[in-house]
């Protein structure tokens, strides 16, 4: 059961007034979406599904179908929640945008996934800096239907609350793990590489680039190596990490990270594009087109 948050104020937005709850939670103002908003969803949904056929993990595509998301109009969170709560006990909650870290972790730890309620404008179809409804709903939500991945997300939230109490370096290590799995992860399926990361599945360009381009590295998942690896927020990734299964992900991240954070604090971070001797290399990137300024 989801808890109903306390309504704290009405927020004036360019979509009209929306009710705001504690920690930035808002009710999805579904009736206020314009025809343009629905058309943006339709365009992006149809385009991505076509590109993702044969590229995205079967687990992702099947979960998306099972949820009842369709291209014709922006889904109602309340409809999706009925399916999602029955499947894995996760609940979607509307938010205005990015939340403070600790609030975000706390939601995940309680199987609540914050989804940005507004969708990008028509002129932002190909790229938008902040997460919008399309990225959050199309990209993140389907895999919450998967019991193993759903458990991973909750464990991540619990780990986030803990890392927040340890300090900034621990949080940075944990954020890199999120980045290279939840946002930009690849998975081996049917003997080939497939996409499961939300940042990829919601991007036309990166959905093609991550698998078809020779530029980026594609390297086997290694927990501590990933937690040391810097990343790009402004360009396609220089390196993608490949898991064998969601079970591998949840098993590898089950141990207490406290001693790992202590160990990593003594080590240098790894630039986003570097390949190390011990890496399991599926593809060594050519580095073509890589930005040369510092990674995050
Ligand atoms: N096991 C981790 C810890 O002790 C928590 C975690 C689980 C982090 C899954 C990320 C993903 O901090």
TrEMBL record:
Keyword Iron among UniProt keywords? yes
Functional pathway: Amino-acid degradation; L-phenylalanine degradation; acetoacetate and fumarate from L-phenylalanine: step 1/6
Task: Please indicate if the UniProt record lists Iron as a keyword.
Answer: yes
What keywords does the record list, in alphabetical order? Iron, Metal-binding, Monooxygenase, Oxidoreductase, Phenylalanine catabolism
Residue ranges of the Biopterin-dependent aromatic amino acid hydroxylase family profile domain? 1-296
InterPro entries linked:
ArAA_hydroxylase, ArAA_hydroxylase_Fe/CU_BS, ArAA_hydroxylase_sf, Aro-AA_hydroxylase_C_sf, Aromatic-AA_hydroxylase_C, Phe-4-hydroxylase_mono
Q: Which Pfam families match?
A: Biopterin_H
Among CDD domains, the record links this protein to:
pro_PheOH
Q: Which reaction does it catalyse?
A: (6R)-L-erythro-5,6,7,8-tetrahydrobiopterin + L-phenylalanine + O2 = (4aS,6R)-4a-hydroxy-L-erythro-5,6,7,8-tetrahydrobiopterin + L-tyrosine
Required cofactor(s)? Fe(2+)
> What EC number(s) does the entry state?
1.14.16.1
What family is this?
A: Belongs to the biopterin-dependent aromatic amino acid hydroxylase family.
Q: What name goes with this protein?
A: Phenylalanine-4-hydroxylase
What is the organism field in this record? Answer: Luteimonas vadosa
